[in-house]
Amino acid sequence: MSNNDPYLLGFLVSVFSLLLLFLNAVLFLTKVKTFKNKIYTIVACYLTGLFVVEFFCNLIGYANPGNNLFLSHFYFNAQFLLLSLVFYRLFKDKKAKNIVLISSSLVFVLIIFSYIKKPELFWEFNLFEIVSTSLLLVIYALRHLYKTLGEEKQYMYLMTGLIMYLICSCLIFLSGNYELVFIEDPYIDIWIFNSIFYIVYQALIFTEWNYIRKKYKAGV
Fold first, then answer.
1. What are the E-state strand segments in 135-181?
2. How does DSSP assign 65-104, residue by residue?
3. Crossing angle, helix 71-90 and helix 127-147, to 10 degrees?
4. What is the mean pLDDT of the chain?
5. Tell me, what's the pLDDT at 4?
6. d(Cα 189, Cα 158) in Å, to the nearest integer?
7. Which H/E stretch holds residue 184?
8. What is the pLDDT at residue 7?
9. What is the H or E stretch that residue 183 is in?
10. Which pTM does this prediction carry?
11. pLDDT attached to residue 173
């Protein structure tokens, strides 16, 4: 990969975001036994799982560009299921919990059905999978932030970052650039915007971890 390679900047930004994800996963994992909190443990599993998928995605993408699309399904579904579980535990009223359980289960079943109906989707981006899982998580996050107005926020930084990142990601896919990836005249790496928002997301996750750590040390 030469210095004039148009993919270089995007690749470096992606690697940097992967490094931040790795650091966050390690930080969360090292405190699982200390904090002994189920939601915290799920978030730690979420970050670890995503790092594993992202690592292989970058590895395969570097060696064989365009042949790593199938890993997106593991990424989006792992994110969807684990964060749905986070929201299920965060929401206090039974009605909201049931909505999360039913909505997430229904979407996941529809995603599975889409692969049964069209198996070749496994080797492509599944737009329904990306948009449905992302938007549902955004709705959950917005609902959580709204319901905790005036209260001490639980995972506020994580939720804020999640909303920003998922909306950005959805807009990129919905624009149709999930197939183009690059615009050559003028040259623009579309995915670099996604990576930048992902870096912001990881920075907010670190802020969340630091906030939890300080609360624990203060005995709150």
1. none
2. TTS-TTHHHHHHHHHHHHHHHHHHHH--SHHHHHHHHHHH
3. 20
4. 87
5. 54
6. 26
7. strand 182-184
8. 61
9. strand 182-184
10. 0.89
11. 78
Any idea which of 27-31, 130-134, 159-163, 190-194 has the lowest mean pLDDT?
A: 190-194
How far is residue 220's CA from residue 218's CA, in Å, rounded to a whole number?
6
Q: Which residues touch 175 (CB under 8 Å, ≥6 apart)?
A: none
pLDDT value, residue 184: 43
> What tokens were used for 155?
């995972």
Lookup: tokens for 48: 């670890």
- List the one residue out of 65, 74, 19 whose CA is nearest residue 181: 65
- Report the distance separating Cα 154 and Cα 212, nearest Å: 9
Nearest to 87 by CA among 35, 23, 162: 162
Catalogue all structural domains in the chain, each as residue range(s) with its CATH number. 8-218 (1.20.1070)
**Could you tell me the two tokens for 47?**
């970050």
Residue 87 confidence (pLDDT) above 80 = yes
Q: What's the pLDDT band for 6 if we cut at 50, 70, 90?
A: low
Residues 6+ away with beta carbon under 8 Å from 97: 88, 91
Q: Please give the single-letter amino acid code of residue 143.
A: R
Instruction: Give the list of residues 6+ apart from residue 13 with CB closer than 8 angstroms, or none.
Output: 192, 195, 196, 199
